[in-house]
Give the backbone structure.
Amino acid sequence: MTKVKVGMVQMSCTSDKNENMQKAIAGIRKAAKDGAQIVCLQELFTSLYFCDVEDYENFKLAESIPGASTETLSAIAKELNVVIIASLFEKRTQGIYHNTTAVLDADGTYLGKYRKMHIPDDPAFYEKFYFTPGDLGYKVFKTKYATFGVLICWDQWYPEAARITALMGAEILFYPTAIGWATSQTEDVNSEQYNGWQVLQRSHAVANGVHVVSVNRTGFEQNGAMKFWGGSFVANPFGRVLYQASHENEETTVVELDLAKTDFYRTHWPFLRDRRIDSYQPITKRFIDEE
């Protein structure tokens, strides 16, 4: 298949996990009705974004993967014949938790999971308190409709993650995301932050010749102090924006991707051909000090 229809469910969340799950399922059903073959949900969609505070009670939100949520979504995937990308808070064992995305194939099969590799620690995004860095490496998933990679939110700022996942054979890079603006910020700062976020991901599309699909949450959280900026988007393999959601509204959208474009752009702009892999050893260093 060279063409695949991708669904994105951009939604707001509440403190009720069941309510969030049912809203996500409704979004999946709508996307499937509109022709989606792969549906991506936003980061940590079953809850509010709880990493704004360091609170031990929030560990109770975690679950095993596979587990109850993947079982529920597996049945939906099989019923609708769609692939589902689901970002969840994983309890691996006592005291070890991950920010993890599960992938369910169109027949309901659980294909595996990717654990977020890059973990931020910023005001209102205290993820290092909750999440152990991923230890499964970068992953690609061969599904009924396409082979794709999944990276999660903070991973989207790192070209190394995109490059490695693309080199592993990903035809699409999916980024489930939870990122927003502090409501105390100015519009100039908001614009700069969103544009930087989108431009960097579009650059991953260009450098690797693959489509990029980024799905963010929307709505006010943290007692109104944080506005998640939505703006979910799809970029083609040369970075052109094929679709961009609004910053305010809940939206379920389906976009058709032509995977044959990867060969076209990689042939005409042969960045992978011209890589000097013999010269890249310094990339493994934290910083290169002058000697």
About this structure: The domain at 3-284 is CATH 3.60.110.10 (Nitrilase/N-carbamoyl-D-aminoacid amidohydrolase).
